[in-house]
């Protein structure tokens, strides 16, 4: 066989081998790296499944946290409503019984007045003794009010007029030059409860 025939046979064998590989691929025969591809696909599939499981776990965790927060909110809201109702009731009770201490302190004074009234019915009662008794009741009454914070304002002729404490009911010609713009007379005393004016003193001003 000559050289040309040998080369022709080698080319023919190469073509036939390439054609056989192509036919094998078309017929679904396994390529040489199919195991590596399969392992890679399986690995990615496992990773995807793990991610899905983790995502589900995270969703469940968030649901649990939301439910817990909602429960805490409802409990706090309920406690606040109970506190608000209780406070409102206590405030109402306090307003209704705000003068309870004062009333209890004045009851003995009422008792003294009633005893004094009974003494008036006895014709033999000494008038001076009655006056003295009434004066004692009056002092006792004033003392109770002072203990509860009531204080009479000082008022006298010649003092400066102060609109924070005085109410001018009229003006008259000043009997003396030194009384111009001053208090000439106190018609009605003013009173303060602690440091708050509860009745202005009614005064007459000189002009």
Summarize the helices and strands and which ones pair or pack.
Blueprint: H1 3-26, H2 34-96, H3 100-121, H4 127-147, E1 150-152, E2 166-172, E3 183-188, E4 191-193, E5 196-199, E6 201-206
Parallel strand pairs: 2-6
Antiparallel strand pairs: 1-4, 3-6, 4-5
Helix pairs in contact: 3-4
Quick summary of this structure?
With 207 residues, the protein is of the alpha+beta class. It has helices at residues 3-26, 34-96, 100-121, 127-147; strands at 150-152, 166-172, 183-188, 191-193, 196-199, 201-206.
Structure description:
The protein has helices at 3-26, 34-96, 100-121, 127-147, and strands at residues 150-152, 166-172, 183-188, 191-193, 196-199, 201-206. With 207 residues, the chain is an alpha+beta fold. α3 (100-121) runs antiparallel to α4 (127-147). The longest helix has 63 residues, at 34-96. The radius of gyration is 54 Å and the shape is elongated.
């Amino acid at each position: 066989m000559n050289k040309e025939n040998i080369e022709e046979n080698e080319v023919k064998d190469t073509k036939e081998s390439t054609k056989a590989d192509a036919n094998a691929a078309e017929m679904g025969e396994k390529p040489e790296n199919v195991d590596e591809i399969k392992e890679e696909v399986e690995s990615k599939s496992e990773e995807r499944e793990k991610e899905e499981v983790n995502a589900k776990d995270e969703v469940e965790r968030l649901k649990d946290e939301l439910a817990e927060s909602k429960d805490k909110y409802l409990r706090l809201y309920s406690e606040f409503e109970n506190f608000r109702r209780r406070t409102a009731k206590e405030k109402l009770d306090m307003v209704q019984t705000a003068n309870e201490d004062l009333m209890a302190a004045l009851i003995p004074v009422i008792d003294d007045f009633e005893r004094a009234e009974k003494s008036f019915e006895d014709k033999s009662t000494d008038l001076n003794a009655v006056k003295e008794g009434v004066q004692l009741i009056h002092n006792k009454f004033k003392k109770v009010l002072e203990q509860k914070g009531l204080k009479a304002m000082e008022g006298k002729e010649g003092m400066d007029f102060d609109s924070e404490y005085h109410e001018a009911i009229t003006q008259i010609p000043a009997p003396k030059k030194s009384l111009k713009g001053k208090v000439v007379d106190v018609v009605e005393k003013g009173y303060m409860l602690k440091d708050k004016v509860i009745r202005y003193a009614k005064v007459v001003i000189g002009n």
